[in-house]
Design brief:
alpha+beta, Amidase signature (AS) enzymes, eight-stranded mixed sheet, 16 helices, globular
């Protein structure tokens, strides 16, 4: 196997190759470090590359592999590299939140999800680029190079998990951690042609720091295959002492769900999102083609979608409050986040917004009394260029953002699980895709359905020419 093929080999296959002693953890880390040095100056997917720490971990694991006769007791991703979004803490690594004022901040603890990834045997290569404080759906924070889309470097990989998605799509890491508070996993998956899982509320812990935004955000996974994304969700899921809300473990692992063939699911679908109207034609096409495939598999399709009218105002209020709650000096922020902080309201307005969002969320969840899954566009139109909205006023930018990402935030508000999957390419050669949304805590159904669709078109076989 040549080095490019190895770089694009799935994380689960790499884990098996390590067990079979076909490749060592050190060889994998050295491969990705070489690709990062060569390609990332153009891509901007990493804020920090932990070269010395990753090499030391890889050498230790390679020595352990050489001394161990029975590898059956190794954790599931023993020796496989991963990268962590730079909103999350990794001991002895910078944690910048995409802000210049925090460039020298070095974490002294591991976030709960990071500790679980280390326990699973993953080797952390570094911290991936995020939009400033994770608030925007493109990754162009002030004081950092913009992250770019490996399918076309003139375009964004999305945000706020833009660096994670760009790195996976370009073969600079086999799998990546992301987080989603309004589409920040699903959007980058859409932009970069990946699988992105936003778990249900309470599936993944926020420990130890807690949650500032009433449960709209969660960690999740970005990968080139459904199985990889599902297996990483298995790793990061679960209660940690003191969590304010949590879900019981699934009956079987999420990885096992990829081998389950779902039958006769009742699936709602729509190419429109109210009150925003119809998605762009190429996004509509992805929904229609996916709906046809699902019908051919024996599922029951019906055109239907909740009306999300009334959700925009409270969601924006909570989103603005989350930026303000970072406590970072506004003078160090980009103009969009400075304006967001200026617009943020009082604690009373925040709590009123929470109550309003919860009432509308009840209606969204009630929609699933009659359906197992909802099929929608991931975003309303294809990927934008790097800097495309830079000259606009903050008010104009906000409206552009709301319209583009409209299909995603309702399911953060309602705490429902969703998975983004690729469906094809637009006229600029950029990926597009759809999202599948499920009932509360029903990630397993979505993963099984996405795996069923993946058999028709193995998305992981596509590679950008840049990489």
């Amino acid at each position: 196997m040549n080095s490019v093929d190895l770089a694009f080999t799935s994380a689960l296959e790499q884990a098996q190759m390590i067990r079979n002693r076909e490749v060592s953890p050190l060889e994998l880390v050295e491969l990705y470090l070489e690709r990062i040095r060569r390609l990332d100056p153009q891509l901007g997917s990493y804020f920090f590359v932990a070269e010395q720490m990753a090499l030391a971990d890889a050498k230790a694991k390679t020595e352990q592999l050489a001394k161990t006769k029975d590898v059956g007791e190794f954790p599931p991703f023993f020796g496989v590299p991963i990268a962590i979004k730079d909103l999350y803490a990794v001991t002895q690594m910078p944690q910048t939140y995409g802000t210049t004022v925090m460039k020298e901040n070095v974490a002294i603890y591991d976030d709960g999800v990071v500790a679980r990834m280390k326990q699973a045997g993953l080797i952390i290569l570094g911290k991936t680029a995020t939009s400033e404080v994770g608030s925007l759906p493109y990754t162009e924070p002030l004081g950092f190079p913009p992250a770019r889309n490996p399918w076309n470097l003139d375009y964004t990989p999305g945000g706020s998990s833009g660096g994670a998605a760009a790195a996976v799509a370009a073969g600079l890491i086999p799998i990546a951690h992301g987080s989603d508070g309004g589409g920040s996993i699903r959007g980058p998956a859409f932009c970069c042609g990946l699988v992105g899982i936003k778990p249900a509320r309470g599936r993944v812990s926020h420990a130890p720091v807690g949650d500032r935004q009433n449960g709209i955000s969660t960690s999740g996974s970005l990968a080139r295959t459904v199985a990889d994304a599902a297996a990483l969700l298995d790793v990061i899921s679960g209660y940690i002492t003191g969590d304010p809300y949590w879900l019981p473990p699934p009956e079987t692992s999420f990885l096992d769900s990829t081998n389950h063939i779902p039958t006769n699911l009742r699936i709602a679908c729509s190419t429109a999102v109210q009150p925003f109207g119809e998605a762009a034609q190429v996004c509509q096409q992805g929904v229609r083609e996916t709906a046809i495939s699902l019908q051919e598999m024996g599922h029951i399709l019906e055109e239907a979608c909740p009306d999300f009218s009334g959700l925009e105002e409270p969601f924006v209020t909570i989103w603005q409050s989350g930026v303000a709650a970072t406590g970072l000096p506004t003078g160090t922020m980009g103009k969009m986040n400075r304006w967001i902080v200026e617009q943020s309201g009082s604690a009373g307005e925040y709590l009123q917004a929470v109550a309003q969002m919860q009432m509308i969320s009840r209606q969204i969840v009630a929609f699933f009394d009659n359906f197992d899954v909802l099929l929608l566009p991931t975003y309303m139109h294809p990927t934008i260029r790097v800097g495309e909205w830079a000259a606009l006023s903050p008010q104009e930018t906000l409206q552009k953002i709301i319209t583009w990402i409209a299909p995603c935030p309702p399911f953060n508000a309602a705490g429902l699980p969703a998975i983004a999957i690729p469906t094809g390419f637009d006229t600029n050669g950029l990926p597009v895709g759809v999202q599948l949304v499920g009932r509360p805590a029903a990630e397993a159904t979505l993963i099984a359905l996405a795996a069923q669709l993946e058999t028709l078109r193995p998305w992981g076989d596509y590679r950008p020419a840049f990489a």
